[in-house]
C-alpha cells in the first residue's frame, strides 16, 4: 500500500503563490507517475499536472501552463506543485495521485489511471 499526504493549501489573494507538497510513504518503489488534480465545488475532478518519476518528464493542463510547475524529490519521495499568478478560478480541493505501473499515451491526465490518492488540500484564491 501507498499513503499520500498533501500539505500547503490555504487562502491567498489573486496573483499570489502557493506551493503544495505531497509526501508518499509505504510501497513507493514502484512509483511510475505522480499527478495533481483539482476539484472545484460542483465540478468534476480535473487534471492539473503530472510527472514521470524516473525520467522527470512533466505535463501540464493548458489552464495552468506558465503558472504552475510540478517537481519531485526522489530522496524525500515528495512531489511539489508550485502555483504562481493564482486566479480565483484556481480555487478547488487539490489532490495528488500515484500510479504504480507503466503506461503510454495521455494516461496521466485521467483520474482512473491512478492507483492511490491523497486526502486533498483546499486552495482558495480571493479576488
Give a brief description:
The chain has strands spanning 2-7, 10-13, 18-26, 33-39, 46-52, 58-60, 68-73, 78-83, 92-99, 116-117, 121-126. With 127 residues, it is an all-beta fold.
Explain the overall architecture.
With 127 residues, this protein is an all-beta fold. Helices cover 0% and strands 50% of the residues. It is built from no helices and 11 strands. It has strands at residues 2-7, 10-13, 18-26, 33-39, 46-52, 58-60, 68-73, 78-83, 92-99, 116-117, 121-126. Strands 2, 4, 5, 6, 9, 10 and 11 form a 7-stranded mixed beta sheet that branches. Strand 7 (68-73) and strand 8 form a beta hairpin.
Distance between the termini: 40 Å
Biggest pleated sheet: 7 strands, mixed
Number of helices: 0
How many distinct beta strands? 11
Helix content: under 10%
Integer-rounded radius of gyration: 14 Å
Order of helices and strands: EEEEEEEEEEE
Mean pLDDT, to the nearest integer, reads 95
What percentage of amino acids are in beta strands?
over 45%
Dominant shape: globular
Low-pLDDT ranges: none
Structural class: mainly beta
How would you summarize the topology of this molecule?
Layout: E1 2-7, E2 10-13, E3 18-26, E4 33-39, E5 46-52, E6 58-60, E7 68-73, E8 78-83, E9 92-99, E10 116-117, E11 121-126
Parallel strand pairs: 2-11
Antiparallel strand pairs: 1-3, 3-8, 4-5, 4-9, 5-6, 7-8, 9-10, 9-11
